[in-house]
Amino acid sequence: MKEYTGPEADYYDYCFVGLEGDMQFYVEEAQKAGSPVLELGCGTGRILLPIAKSGATIVGLDRAPTMLALLRQKLTKLSPDVQGRVSLLEGDMRDFDLTERFPLAIIPYRAFLHLLTAKAQRQALTCIREHLTDEGRLIFNVFDPDLEVIAAHLGPLGSAQKKDSEFIDPTSGHRIVVWATTQYDPEQQLIEQYFIFEELDADGDMLARTYRPLTLRYVHRYEMRYLLELCGYKVEALYGDFQRGPFRAGGEQVWVARRA
User: Fold this and answer.
1) Cα angle: 241, vertex 58, 141; to 5 degrees
2) Which of 28, 104, 211, 239 is deepest in the core (most CB within 10 A)?
3) Cα(54)–Cα(101) distance, integer angstroms
4) Segments making up each domain of the chain, as ranges
């Protein structure tokens, strides 16, 4: 796995800033559920740390050791009380085995889509279910595929290279410009992206350029509902945003499912 092992890990917090209201949403759900909370795909802790700061005990699992290392660095700067509420594990959400059972498991910021086959998605949902308490819930979000957007990114070349973001590297002080290309494979339901990180000096001259792939498998609304029911969940709610608004096609799928 090459994702999140190079500069995209170091730059993750600057490139992927989340969705409007998602942090507050997951913190509120964690407070309602009580401890402990399980986060799958915890990354560098953008959601995990606010949950721990709110007073909840949380276990974070991620398969990228570089991301977990960055999260551990962040933890060292927090109070001993917060540090004591966090446990971190390197592992795969398809196949993990913990002694604890959780009233709440979460998969924020579309991390579920890193599972690239329907089989892998079923494996993860089944494994997570086995780690929930009898009334435990799974809450996660994925984007809803927009057919017009997919149609515009078909073909061997996909989309043209577009500027995605830019920021100042706090370590070097250099400007980092991020470019991205996107291509959809509707047969496999895959979205394949290439991110290009360009490091520029004060004069705008390029010092380094790095390429990194990112592949996700998108899931349609009724397919996701079927997967949840197939894997032993009862859907409690489907929201379209983190203000708990109604679902809207082409927007976000925010799922709340209880162990059946």
Assistant:
1) 20
2) 104
3) 20
4) 7-144+219-259, 147-217
Whole-number Å distance between alpha carbons of 35 and 100:
11
* Segments in the chain forming alpha helices (H): 7-10, 12-15, 22-33, 48-53, 65-75, 80-84, 118-129, 147-152, 221-230
Q: What is the CA radius of gyration of the chain?
A: 19
Contact 105, 128 (CB under 8 A): yes
Give pairs for 144-151: CB < 8 Å, separation 24+: 144/220, 144/221, 144/247, 144/248, 144/249, 144/250, 144/251, 144/252, 144/253, 145/189, 145/218, 145/219, 145/220, 145/250, 146/249, 146/250, 147/250, 148/250, 149/250, 150/184, 150/186
Instruction: Give the model confidence (pLDDT) of 170-229 as tens digits.
Output: 889 999 999 999 989 999 999 999 899 999 999 999 999 988 889 999 999 999 999 999
Which DSSP category does 234 fall into?
E
Please tell me the CATH code under which domain 7-144+219-259 is placed. Answer: 3.40.50.150
